[in-house]
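Input (Ornithine cyclodeaminase family protein):
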Amino acid sequence: MVYTKEQMEKNDAIRNEYKKYLNIGHEFIYLSEQDCIDTGTTDMEIIEATEQGMIDYSKKILEMPAKIGIHPMPDCLMHAMPANLPDQYACGIKWGSNFPTNKTMYPDVIPTNCQIIYNDALTGHMMALMDASWITKVRTPATALVGIKHAANLKAKTFGMIGCGIQGKSNVRMVENILKELETIYVYDMYESAMDALIAEDQPQVKARIVKAESLEQLVRSCDVIVSALPIVHSPNPPVKAEWVHKGQTIVCLDCHTVYEDAVYKSADKYYVDSIEQHELLIGYGYYPHGLPKITGETGELAAGTVPKRESDDELIVVNNVGMASEDMMCAKIIFERALKMGLGVKLPLWTSTKGLL
Ligand SMILES: NC(=O)c1ccc[n+]([C@@H]2O[C@H](COP(=O)([O-])OP(=O)(O)OC[C@H]3O[C@@H](n4cnc5c(N)ncnc54)[C@H](O)[C@@H]3O)[C@@H](O)[C@H]2O)c1
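Output:
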């Protein structure tokens, strides 16, 4: 995908702004997780940037091949996620991993860690290398919230979070940005300590009362909107029975088809995925042994209003978002631009010496 003349002019002007702070092509900035947080980027800014990344993807006005992956440990993944959004002048690649095995084998390091190389799309040079663990932590709930914003009943009173790890905590912390009338948030995890840690961290930040579900069945039966973020496994043994799910619910999966019996997806009135191409690739990797149900549209199309959305309060709706580089690059752009202006991070020389090449 090449830039139009209009995009070239617009983005060249933005590049000239960047050049006031960074000698592009000769240096880059390194941003740690704390630097990203210190930019002060708000949840709503992340949600809006993520939504734009999903819409640009579904309009196909960007270049974003389906992510490819390697799997060095059992049920672990490392994904390469490049994207170029010409309209947004946002370009780069995320290298992200999830190793649930760290919990037991290497407990001194977290299961998920990611980096982004953020590039100048006009010259190809790296402008920033940033830790993307925080971006992943907030943009993933943002993808769920884009689905919820357009598919759920926004007057929902109950929300359920299945999995209380990094994603569980940030989903609960961010949910009231969209579901403003929540009264009760049920959480469930196989470890009591994970639920306790979520409540300790999130309760001071949300209005609704967070309670530990007595069982997964209680959570599923009780909640209007449910998000799940359990480890994605190759051969899932889904713990949620189809009879626990009921009409009117909005179910968001951030973990493919790990949690619900296949009948739930097949009986949904509407079923959205963030990227049809990506999920078809995942079938090839063996993640959907029962295949996918009929897809109503992509989540970005839902957000753009180009496919049918919820038509009645009685519909069961499933949104399956596996995550896309376009969302990461939109968030990386905000972080990069703020960090530049705020003087955050460390400037480092690019290792490609022009002297040696010219
Ligand atoms: N869709 C996306 O864009 C996206 C982005 C990042 C992460 N993820 C996925 O989200 C999932 C969670 O990531 P995380 O960083 O929060 O991991 P995490 O390890 O921090 O949290 C996972 C939680 O699930 C709990 N758990 C594991 N098996 C369980 C079971 N059978 N029943 C109940 N609880 C169980 C664990 O105790 C843990 O608290 C992973 O599958 C990851 O790949 C998706």
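Residues 98, 100, 111-112, 136, 140, 143, 163-168, 189-191, 194, 229-232, 254-255, 321-323 surround nicotinamide-adenine-dinucleotide (CB under 6 Å).
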